[in-house]
Amino acid sequence: MSTQSNSSSDLKRITTHQLQAMKNRGEKIAMLTAYDFSMASLIDGAGIDIILVGDSASNVIAGHETTLPITLDQMIYHASAVVRAVKRAFVLVDIPFGYYQGNSSEALRSAIRIMKESGAHGVKVEGGAEIQESVKRIISAGVPVMGHLGLTPQSIYKFGTYTVRAKEEMEAEKLIQDALLLEECGCFGVLFEKIPASLAAEVTNRLSVPTIGIGAGSGTDGQVLVMHDMLGITKDFNPRFLRRYADLQTTIDQAVKEYVADVKSVSFPNQDESY
To answer: Is 48 a member of any domain?
Structure first.
């Protein structure tokens, strides 16, 4: 038996079965977004469990104000790049706005395109009872689905605000029922965004499938952040739930300024850097 630290068991790809086992034994699940080969390779190598190819690419990559403009073709493009980089993590892809709501046949077509054309391992959709037929149809085709409740950015124009959701009793009860319904439909997990920590912990305890939180306290089975936010690449977004683990905006700014100065002063390239 090998005693090397990078044993075959360490390199096994994360699956829905392993994510469920992590919940069952109380091991927290770490999840981050990625949208390209290079960054996906880095965070996969660092041990992330789930990489979400989020429709947040609409914001941090394309510069849109909301997640709504991004298309299915664009999501497949980003997901394909991520999948080519990943050796271990479970790759989850958002089905973008307009490609699954209200039409279960279109939802199934969208999910199948993502799985076939990108090689991803599962999809994520926003909503509860309103999209249950789409969820059931996608899962019936063998595609793993994660639900997303609470603050659902694809519905931002309905809510009109990014404030905490489910603070009132009626909305909290709907969230609980939606979470139970998603589990009943066959979702392998549910993501809670920006809801009270006590509610997230309560629903997590009631569900048998894993839960992931963002702005939902520590009582969920795992956490997710947008990579650009946690690395300090973007600094104009400062929600209470965000912890920055680096200041890459400053690092990049300083590096580029040094490069510009070296080029203009003809100190780059020097003799050793020339052929």
So the answer is: yes
The packing angle between helices 72-85 and 37-45, to 10°, is 50
DSSP strands (E only) in the chain = 29-33, 50-53, 90-94, 122-126, 145-150, 189-193, 211-214, 222-225
Do residues 252 and 235 touch, judged by C-beta distance below 8 A?
A: no
Q: E strand or H helix at 149, and its extent?
A: strand 145-150
In the chain, the amino acid numbered 166 is: A
Q: Which domain holds residue 221?
A: 16-265
Cβ–Cβ < 8 Å for 84, 74: no
Residues involved in catalysis: 193
CATH number of the domain enclosing 30: 3.20.20.60
24 within a domain of the structure (yes/no): yes
Q: What are the angstrom distances between the C-alpha of 271 and each of 258, 266, 274? A: 18, 11, 5
Give every CB contact of residue 171 below 8 A, 6+ residues apart in sequence.
165
Give per-residue pLDDT as tens, 83-96. Answer: 999 999 999 999 99
| CA angle (139, 216, 166) in 5-degree steps | 80
Q: In this structure, is residue 275 part of a structural domain?
A: no
The secondary structure element, H or E, covering residue 33 is strand 29-33
Q: Give the count of domains, the chain.
A: 1
Spatial distance between the Cα atoms of 43 and 35, rounded to a whole number of angstroms: 11
The pTM of the full predicted model, rounded to 2 decimals, is 0.93
Q: What is the pLDDT of residue 8?
A: 37
Q: What is the pLDDT of residue 160?
A: 65
